[in-house]
Write a structure and sequence with these properties.
This protein is α+β, with helices and mostly antiparallel strands. It contains 13 helices and 12 strands. Helix 7 packs antiparallel against helix 8, helix 9 packs across helix 11 and helix 11 runs antiparallel to helix 13 (460-470).
C-alpha cells in the first residue's frame, strides 16, 4: 500500500466515523420515535374510519329525510284527496276528482282505475292519468283479456308493487310495453254490494323508487275510494227509495183525496137525505101526535080503557120519534154547517145546576147522587148556552141509565192551556174496550143487558160529539167494565 493510499484510507475513516456515529444516533432516535409514529398513524386511521362513518351516516340520514319528506308529502296529498272524494256522493265525481297533482306529490305520473261491470261482464275504465287514448285502450284490453287473474287478485285483497312482486299478474316486459312504466303499485278496490275493481299507479322515472310506504299510501287510497263508492251507492239507493216512497205517497195521497171527496159527497148526500127525511117525518108525526092528543082529551067521546092505553102508547112513541127526528135534524144541520154556535161566556156551575134541576126526578127515581166539583177558576167557558145544556143533559142522562141505585155521578173541571176540560164520571157498569171507539157513532149502542131493557136511539153521544167539535173542542171516553165510565170534553176557556 502506498503512502497516498494510506492517507486516503485515514481520510475515509475519519470521514466515515462521524457519519456512522450520526447514523447510529439517527437510528436510535428513530427507534425512540417509532412508537409515537405508530400511535399517530393509528389515530389517523381511526379518524379516517370515523370520517367515513360520519359520511355514511349523513348519507343514510339524507335518504331517511328524503323518504320521510316523500311520505309526509304523500300523506298530505292523500289527506287532500280523501277530503275531496268524501265531499261528493256521485260515483262519477269521485273518480273525476283524482287529479294528476295528487299522483305527482307521490312521485308518480301515471295511473288508471277500473271497476267490474257485472252486467257486461267486463272491467270498465273509471279514470286515467298520464296515458293517451291508445295507451289506455291497450291497458283496458290487457285487463279484460286477463279477467280471471285480475278478479283473483282483487279477491286476495293484497296490494302489490314492483318491490313486492308482480310477476303473477304483470311481468316486467308488460309493465314496459303495455303500462309504459318502470315501477308501479296496483291495489284492489273492494266496495260492498258485490262491486270490485282495481287502481294502478306507476312511473317512468328510473330514479323514482317505489317504497313500502308508497304501497301503504296507495292501499289507504284504494280503501277510501271503496268507502266513497259504497257511500255513493248507498246514497243513490236511499235517494231512489225516497223518490219511490214520495211517488207512492203522492199516488196514495191522490187516492185518499179522491176517496175523501167521494166520502164527503156520500156524507153530504146522507146529511141531505137525513135532513129531508126528518123534515118529511115531522109533518105526519105532528098530525099523529095531534090526533092522538085530541082523542085522549075525550072531546070526541069517551074511550074504552084498552083504546086509551093504545092511544097513550101512540102519543108516547110519537114523542120518542119526534125527539129522534129532532136529534137527526140537529146532527145534519151541524154537519152541514147550518147551525152557528153562538159563543158567549157561560158558567159551568150554573149550567150544571140547571141540568140537575131538570133531571132531579130521574135522579131521585134511580136513587143516584150527583156531585158537582167545578172550581171557580175553571167555571167560565165560551160556548153556546143552549147547546152546552144539551151536552150535559145527554151525558148525565146516559150516566143515569147505566148507574145502579145508590151510585154516584160527578162533574169536575180543570184548565189545560186555553181550554177547560169537563169530566162527567159515574160508578156504572162501564163500557167494553172494543166498543169505546164506536161509542160516538150514530145509532151505535153497546150490546149489554141494560141496553136491551132501556130504549134509546144511539144518537145522543153522536150529537154531543158534533156540538163539542163545533166549539173547537174534543170529546173522549175512558171506561172499564164494572168500574164506571168517564166522558171528558174540552171547551175554550173564557178570557
Amino acid at each position: 500500500m502506498s503512502h497516498l493510499d494510506k492517507i486516503l484510507l485515514v481520510v475515509y475513516i475519519l470521514t466515515t466515523l462521524p457519519l456512522a456515529v450520526i447514523l447510529i444516533y439517527k437510528i436510535s432516535r428513530l427507534n425512540q420515535l417509532m412508537p409515537k409514529f405508530n400511535s399517530v398513524k393509528k389515530s389517523l386511521d381511526d379518524m379516517d374510519e370515523q370520517a367515513k362513518l360520519i359520511v355514511r351516516t349523513d348519507m343514510e340520514l339524507n335518504k331517511i329525510q328524503e323518504a320521510l319528506d316523500k311520505k309526509i308529502t304523500g300523506l298530505y296529498a292523500l289527506q287532500r284527496l280523501s277530503r275531496i272524494i268524501s265531499m261528493t256522493l256521485e260515483e262519477d265525481q269521485i273518480f273525476k276528482r283524482i287529479q294528476p297533482e295528487y299522483l305527482e306529490d307521490l312521485g308518480l305520473e301515471r295511473g288508471c282505475g277500473f271497476l267490474w261491470d257485472d252486467g257486461h261482464k267486463q272491467f270498465a275504465l273509471r279514470f286515467s292519468i298520464g296515458y293517451t287514448e291508445d295507451e289506455i285502450n291497450a291497458i283496458k284490453s290487457f285487463i279484460n283479456n286477463n279477467q280471471k287473474q285480475c278478479l283473483n287478485f282483487i279477491t286476495s285483497d293484497k296490494t302489490l308493487s314492483s318491490i313486492s312482486g308482480l310477476n303473477d299478474l304483470i311481468t316486467a316486459q308488460q309493465l314496459n310495453t303495455i303500462f309504459k312504466v318502470i315501477s308501479c303499485i296496483i291495489s284492489p278496490l273492494l266496495p260492498q254490494q258485490n262491486n270490485r275493481g282495481l287502481i294502478f299507479v306507476g312511473t317512468q322515472n328510473p330514479e323514482t323508487v317505489v317504497t313500502e310506504g308508497d304501497e301503504e299510501l296507495i292501499k289507504i287510497l284504494a280503501t277510501q275510494l271503496g268507502q266513497a263508492l259504497e257511500n255513493a251507492r248507498l246514497f243513490e239507493k236511499s235517494w231512489r227509495a225516497q223518490q219511490e216512497l214520495e211517488k207512492k205517497v203522492i199516488e196514495r195521497t191522490h187516492e185518499l183525496t179522491v176517496a175523501l171527496e167521494e166520502v164527503k159527497k156520500i156524507s153530504d148526500r146522507k146529511t141531505n137525505f137525513v135532513s129531508s127525511v126528518s123534515h118529511e117525518l115531522r109533518t105526519p108525526l105532528t098530525s099523529i101526535k095531534g090526533y092522538a092528543a085530541i082523542l085522549l082529551t075525550g072531546k070526541l067521546g069517551d074511550l074504552p080503557k084498552d083504546v086509551r092505553e093504545r092511544l097513550e102508547k101512540i102519543n108516547r112513541h110519537s114523542d120518542e120519534l119526534v125527539h129522534m127526528v129532532n136529534e137527526l135534524l140537529d146532527i145534519a144541520r151541524i154537519e152541514s154547517g147550518r147551525v152557528i154556535m153562538r159563543s158567549e161566556i157561560c158558567g159551568l156551575q150554573e149550567t150544571a145546576s140547571k141540568v140537575e134541576d131538570l133531571l132531579s126526578g130521574q135522579l131521585k127515581e134511580r136513587a143516584l147522587y150527583l156531585n158537582t166539583g167545578i172550581a171557580q177558576d175553571t167555571n167560565l167557558v165560551l160556548a153556546d148556552k143552549i147547546q152546552l145544556e144539551r151536552v150535559l143533559i145527554n151525558l148525565i142522562s146516559n150516566a143515569i141509565k147505566f148507574t145502579p141505585a145508590q151510585g154516584r155521578i160527578t162533574i169536575t173541571s180543570r184548565k189545560i192551556d186555553k181550554m177547560i176540560r169537563v169530566d162527567v164520571s159515574d160508578t156504572g157498569c162501564g163500557i167494553p174496550e172494543e166498543a169505546q171507539e164506536a161509542i160516538f157513532e150514530e145509532f151505535f149502542r153497546v150490546d149489554n143487558a141494560i141496553n136491551q131493557e132501556v130504549k134509546g136511539t144511539g144518537l145522543g153521544l153522536s150529537l154531543v160529539k158534533h156540538i163539542v167539535e163545533a166549539h173547537g173542542g174534543k170529546i173522549w171516553v175512558k171506561s172499564k167494565p164494572g168500574s164506571g165510565t168517564t166522558f171528558s170534553f174540552t171547551l175554550p176557556a173564557a178570557e
